[in-house]
Amino acid sequence: xxxxxxxxxxxxxxxxxxxxxxxxxxxxxxxxxxxxxxxxxxxxxxxxxxxxxxxxxxxxxxxxxxxxxxxxxxxxxxxxxxxxxxxxxxxxxxxxxxxxxxxxxxxxxxxxxxxxxxxxxxxxxxxxxxxxxxxxxxxxxxxxxxxxxxxxxxxxxxxxxxxxxxxxxxxxxxxxxxxxxxxxxxxxxxxxxxxxxxxxxxxxxxxxxxxxxxxxxxxxxxxxxxxxxxxxxxxxxxxxxxxxxxxxxxxxxxxxxxxxxxxxxxxxxxxxxxxxxxxxxxxxxxxxxxxxxxxxxxxxxxxxxxxxxxxxxxxxxxxxxxxxxxxxxxxxxxxxxxxxxxxxxxxxxxxxxxxxxxxxxxxxxxxxxxxxxxxxxxxxxxxxxxxxxxxxxxxxxx
Length: 398
Prior knowledge:
This protein has 15 helices and two strands. By secondary structure, the protein is mostly helical. It folds into two domains: 28-203, MFS general substrate transporter like domains (Growth Hormone, Chain: A), CATH 1.20.1250; 220-391, MFS general substrate transporter like domains (Growth Hormone, Chain: A), CATH 1.20.1250. The protein has a two-stranded antiparallel sheet with strand order 1-2. Its main location: membrane. It is found in: Cell membrane. Keywords: Membrane, Transmembrane, Transmembrane helix.
């Protein structure tokens, strides 16, 4: 009788769960990280190589830039539909399909350097990247308990960031040594290998019985702060990565060192934020410090020269790393367990759209007024984001 009563009480709360997530030390989460590393390796390897391939084909600077623009445009457009797909076909199928679509078209780039086929293949790869990014970050929340979301997001940041840290520079060097075709083949095979890991990502058991299906929470106001923080920081970092080599020409190893520093800073920022969110309960409190740190870094780039270039790049990267992790955990909390897919899509769209706006918008400022002016505008945008975030209510992640 007592057992029956307990069961009825559980049914009345609306959910009977057959299992709980294994956590950040569990096999499913680790296999997801492995698939993410392989997927982003294919993405990072070709990011600087495809524009170079288009330029070798006679497309010029505009055509070369259009290849990246096409990749990111289809990425963002796809991300809008991924929450719907996650519900209907599942996280694992979406991640696997994204990895295959990102990798499989890559070897076909070797067939022609003409702009039209390169753009078409870039668009197809962007669809795959959009599927994989949203499914991957949604799995961060699905595969671990909520108390581990911060650290899980930090480890996911490593899986995303380390391939970019290593392979963005390696891709161009590999082309010079081994040729375009070899690089295209490797960049195609690696994400497909990542898809082969997906069957090992076992999802937590679905509810055994429900009386009422949970509805996604209305998260418009509580989602504003993390989205503003993500967009403004990605505008700054997108502009920094795009224009720093042009702003500091003939600087030897200074610019590569600064770009490496901003990528490494972002990795350490994400790890630090994960620990602070989970162990100190600082969810939602790192957005403003992260934006202020990034604004200070862009201010250092305005002053320019020598060590300030590297120091500013580190500050931008570390500040953005804090914001990336904290904003993702805040969005997971704001949307609730039934809306992890929507939270992931919103986070990724803010990241990718902000990067594109940074490259295009700050370029429009730099053309007539110079690169220091563009970096200064980015700093002002970050300060405006701080003001907007500060006056709006913030919902902490825990």
